[in-house]
Design brief:
By secondary structure, this protein is of the alpha/beta class. It has 11 helices and 10 strands. The structure holds NADP nicotinamide-adenine-dinucleotide phosphate (NAP). NADP nicotinamide-adenine-dinucleotide phosphate (NAP) is lined by residues 31-35, 61, 138, 168-169, 193, 221-227, 230-232, 241-242, 280, 297-301, 305, 308-309.
Length: 332
C-alpha cells in the first residue's frame, strides 16, 4: 500500500544538537542491526520503519554487515527506501559503517583505506543512495595507522559520499586522537557511537568527558542491552526473544540471562512500575537524562515495542532517591 508520512510526524519528537555541529538528531533513533535481514519478515520491517518516521524518528542507523546475511539489512532497507521514503530523503539521516569483517581476504575487515573506500561504495549501491549522512569507522583497528583511517573518512566527505563522519566503540584516548586528526583535516568528527546501558557503563569512565570537551555528539547503542532491560525476560527466556533466536553476529545468547540477572531485572521493574513506566521506558529514560547523549539508538522486533519505547520521552527525569535505588540494584 502506498505510504504517505503522517502530517503530525514532528509534533512530539525531541531533537538534540549533535555536539558542536549544525545537525539535530531525534532523541530516539532506530537501528537496523537485527530484524531487517533476509531471515526477517519484510512486511514487519516496513511497518517498523513507517511507524518510526511517522513518530519523528528521522535517523536510521545501518552498517555494511547488518543482516543476516551481511549486507541484507542495507539491501532490504534500500528496497523499502525506494518505495516509501524517496520523497522524504531530505528529512532523513541515514548512517552506515565499516570496520567489522565484511568479505573474505585481507581487504574486507578493520580500517584500511582499501576496505573503507570499497565498503562505502558497496553500501551506497545496496541502499540505492547517492550519499549517506553519516559514515562511521565501526571499531578501532590495532594495526592500521589512525592517520590512514581518519584520512579516508575525510576523503569520503570530500568525495561527497558522506556528509559527516563518526567513530564507534573507540576508547577515550584513541577517540581524542581521532578527533584531533579529523579536526586538522577540516572534517570535524560529528559523533561517537558507544554501547551504553544501565548494564554497561564504560562510557562514564572518561569517554563522555572527552566527547563533551571535543564538541562531539554521542549516540548510545543497545540501550536496552539487546532487550534484557525490558519486561521480556522477567520470568525467563521467551521463545520469541533475541536470546532464544540464535541469530549470531553478536546477538545475545541464552546463557546471558542468569537467575541473578533476572532477580535484578525484577527489582528494577518495581522501580519502573512506581514511575508508571515499563522497564524499557525507564531504561531509555535513564540514558536520556544525560544531556551529553545526543540520541539513544534502539532496535525493535515489532512496531508495538517502538510505541512502548517512544513513551520514555515523556518522563526522563529521576529523583535522587530513584537514582540511588537503581544504583543499589545495579551494584548488588
Ligand atoms: N556500533 C556498534 O558496534 C553497534 C553494535 C550493536 C548495535 N548497534 C546499533 O544499535 C542499534 C540498537 O541495538 P540493539 O538492537 O541491541 O538495541 P536494544 O534497544 O538494546 O535492543 C533491541 C531489542 O530489545 C527488545 N525490545 C526493544 N524495545 C522493547 C520494548 N519496548 N519492550 C520489550 N522489548 C523490547 C527487542 O528484543 P526482541 O528481538 O527479543 O523482541 C529488540 O530487538 C542497532 O540496530 C545498531 O544500529 C551498533
Amino acid at each position: 500500500m502506498h505510504y504517505s508520512a503522517s502530517l503530525h510526524r514532528y509534533d512530539n519528537m525531541e531533537y538534540r544538537r549533535c555536539g558542536n555541529s549544525g545537525l539535530l538528531l531525534p532523541a530516539l533513533s532506530l537501528g537496523l542491526w537485527h530484524n531487517f535481514g533476509d531471515i526477517d519478515s519484510q512486511a514487519n520491517a516496513r511497518a517498523i520503519l513507517r511507524l518510526a518516521f511517522d513518530k519523528g524518528i528521522t535517523h536510521f542507523d545501518l552498517a555494511n554487515n547488518y543482516g543476516p546475511p551481511p549486507g541484507s539489512a542495507e539491501a532490504n532497507f534500500g528496497k523499502i527506501f525506494k518505495e516509501d521514503f524517496l520523497p522524504y530523503r531530505d528529512e532523513l539521516i541515514i548512517s552506515t559503517k565499516a570496520g567489522w569483517k565484511m568479505w573474505e581476504g585481507p581487504y574486507g575487515d578493520y580500517g584500511s583505506k582499501k576496505y573503507l573506500v570499497a565498503s562505502i561504495d558497496q553500501s551506497l549501491k545496496r541502499m540505492g543512495l547517492d550519499y549517506v549522512d553519516i559514515f562511521y569507522h565501526h571499531r578501532p583497528d590495532p594495526h592500521t595507522p589512525l592517520e590512514e583511517t581518519m584520512a579516508t573518512l575525510h576523503l569520503l566527505v570530500q568525495q561527497g559520499k558522506a556528509l559527516y563522519v563518526g567513530i564507534s566503540s573507540y576508547p577515550p584516548a584513541e577517540a581524542a586522537k581521532a578527533f584531533q586528526l579529523l579536526q586538522q583535516m577540516g572534517t570535524p568528527c560529528l559523533i561517537h557511537q558507544p554501547r551504553y546501558s544501565m548494564l554497561d557503563r564504560w562510557v562514564e569512565d572518561g569517554l563522555l568527558d572527552v566527547l563533551e570537551k571535543n564538541g562531539v555528539g554521542c549516540i548510545a547503542f543497545s540501550p536496552l542491552a539487546q532487550g534484557v532491560l525490558t519486561n521480556k525476560y522477567l520470568k525467563g527466556i521467551p521463545a520469541d526473544s533475541r536470546a532464544a533466536s540464535h541469530r549470531g553476529n553478536g546477538a545475545i545468547e541464552e546463557n546471558v540471562i542468569t537467575p541473578q540477572l533476572i532477580h535484578k531485572l525484577n527489582a528494577l521493574n518495581e522501580i519502573a512500575d512506581k514511575r508508571n513506566q515499563s522497564l524499557a521506558q525507564m531504561a531509555l529514560a535513564w540514558i536520556l537524562k544525560d544531556k551529553r547523549i545526543t540520541s539513544v539508538l534502539i532496535g525493535v522486533s515489532k512496531p508495538e515495542q517502538l510505541t512502548d519505547s517512544l513513551t520514555a520521552l515523556q518522563h526522563y527525569s529521576f529523583s535522587t532517591e530513584e537514582l540511588q535505588s537503581i544504583e543499589a540494584i545495579l551494584h548488588a
